[in-house]
């Protein structure tokens, strides 16, 4: 169950991200929908578990539905944009993303949620009908999630396509179902048990045929062709970092990274490339050493090599991208990547800058905006400070942001103003070249501000650089002072704080801008969240706690619902705190995929270990309510301490001792976060069962509490991780969690006293 669920979640997440162009907002929506659907399956469908006698048969039914639904969901995730009449590479609005991912996940997530509740009931019937059985199933599912997550992430994805992984999971599920329903002696020719047993055998043979024949590969290819419609797909492959699809039209290759066209060759978008390269190269008196952080292949390096540079360091995260570029070579890419002055590094850009021994004349950030928390690391004040230390005295850092020659919307203004303010807080000089894409150049040398358009044109003539677009007339047009005046006037308005590692406002402003493009009717929602603050959290939480307290006092029998509320807030806190740990680690250490996977694994181990230990002693614990209150206090304390432990300046990581000690600290905090989460669920189950006036409610209790945990995770992923964390920042987000947990602590303490 745990292996199946985690595997399905990972592969469907990756498939949907391709259709949603890899935007992090969509990541939060997908995870939130998965959790809410699992909660529905666990709680609503699980409510029927006490009324059904043939629980084993129903459990197998849900398992078979899950097994059939998973391959179907993969196919649906690839073709739904065709059904919505949306072309490949085109973005979707917030609402279409929400309902399309909801529909794709629905046939998989709801059965998986129901499996937990029915699994708890079967386990209790087989061994012992008490609260410990729920805890044991919870532990086993967590262990399965660990195995599934590690297996898929680090092994299966690199060797199998999504359909092959799905068919393996379905085959294992149906095979297990055969043994779960092995027929007993019966005089009846046909029973429900025998019917589902026979169906399990048929489906086992069916999935085996799909796996061990070329059919699975043919299904994969057919679905890819359907996904990309009229485009000629010549290659589709997953790496641990994402999906890369190669299309060909005539002699033109286009490389899509998670559905976004990233490189076009041999005829690139020369206008954008020349703008991005030649203006910065001409602003520098003598550019020799160049650093490119992403997006260098496909024309950019070629333009840079037109100058007498001595070294070009090109940093690209995913080795598969350049591997495929070399697999489908063109004269352009062959010339670029084979030049002896070009050195390729497969690592995270920020990670490379922190450890670079050389200094550079120009640093190009080949990412267009802080689209998500990973890319935001290259647009923060901390990174700009780190890059400044690795630049020569006249060095220039170069980046772009979305712009417009016609209209600067409030969302676009906020995004640009945030990054401009961040650059100005670090560098003495910032030059802005407005356009449909705004070009920003920053340096600690005042020479950058002193260069006139006439001087740039003279340097272009003197260096005898041959270009397609960059002429004296074009440069005069782009550098005309009227554009800069208009842009600066458009930037006037509210003050926007700078973007930082621990308060990534750039992400929020980009998401707000992205939402305004595709779902303008939701702009009010983003504006409302922009005004969120810690005092507002405190006020709303206090009012809510007071209202519930009044209800509990007037109707004492309802006070037991303080337990589901506590589990709900713990699910919210679990998601928020875990995201805070992951995001902070990612910010400080770079996109070290395996290390982040290790953090998640350590977190899950913490859950499994603490759940197992508490479950083993559950019946011997007398003061379970007091212990539960203790776990509430521990979560509050953890939320208050966490930001102070993790808020370490990134430049200190250059010291090996600090690097190692902080790494161990991250692993420890992730483990402790999991331990706190794992302690609560078994205790809550025991307390709630004892407080219930109804008999035989173990299955319903498991569904209710598991659903509450998932609902909390839903809101934590959708609002907390995507919106509140960037707006409030690391410290205030953790303090917000402490405030919310004080609310659940207060209400459970009230319940404890009422019960007495």
> What is the mean predicted local confidence, pLDDT?
84
Kindly provide the radius of gyration, computed on alpha-carbon positions and rounded to a whole number of angstroms.
28 Å
CATH homology superfamily of the largest domain? Vaccinia Virus protein VP39
Query: Can you list the strand order of the major beta sheet?
Result: 7-6-5-8-9-11-10
Task: Draw up the topology in text.
Layout: H1 2-19, H2 24-43, H3 55-83, H4 94-126, H5 131-159, H6 162-180, H7 192-211, H8 215-227, E1 233-239, E2 242-249, E3 252-257, E4 260-265, H9 270-283, E5 289-293, H10 300-304, E6 311-316, H11 319-327, H12 331-338, E7 342-346, H13 349-355, E8 360-365, H14 373-376, H15 381-389, E9 391-402, H16 410-426, E10 429-433, E11 437-443, H17 447-450, H18 453-463, H19 472-478, H20 481-490, H21 505-518, H22 523-530, H23 534-554, H24 562-589, H25 593-616, H26 624-646, H27 656-691, H28 698-755
Parallel strand pairs: 5-6, 5-8, 6-7, 8-9
Antiparallel strand pairs: 1-2, 2-3, 3-4, 9-11, 10-11
Helix pairs in contact: 1-2, 1-3, 1-4, 1-5, 1-6, 2-4, 2-28, 3-4, 3-6, 3-7, 3-8, 4-5, 4-28, 5-25, 5-27, 6-7, 6-8, 15-16, 16-21, 21-22, 21-28, 23-28, 24-25, 24-26, 24-27, 24-28, 25-27, 26-27, 26-28, 27-28
Describe the structure.
With 756 residues, this protein is of the alpha/beta class. The protein folds into three domains: 1-230, no CATH class; 273-515, Vaccinia Virus protein VP39 (Rossmann fold), CATH 3.40.50; 576-756, Growth Hormone, Chain: A (Up-down Bundle), CATH 1.20.1250. 66% of the residues lie in helices and 10% in strands. It is built from 28 helices and eleven strands. The protein has helices spanning 2-19, 24-43, 55-83, 94-126, 131-159, 162-180, 192-211, 215-227, 270-283, 300-304, 319-327, 331-338, 349-355, 373-376, 381-389, 410-426, 447-450, 453-463, 472-478, 481-490, 505-518, 523-530, 534-554, 562-589, 593-616, 624-646, 656-691, 698-755; strands at 233-239, 242-249, 252-257, 260-265, 289-293, 311-316, 342-346, 360-365, 391-402, 429-433, 437-443. The strands form two sheets. A seven-stranded mixed β-sheet has the order 7-6-5-8-9-11-10, with helices on both faces. Strands 1-2-3-4 form a four-stranded antiparallel β-sheet, sandwiched between helices. A hairpin with a 2-residue loop joins strand 2 and strand 3. Helix 5 crosses helix 27, helix 16 (410-426) packs antiparallel against helix 21 (505-518) and helix 21 runs antiparallel to helix 22 (523-530). The mean pLDDT is 84.
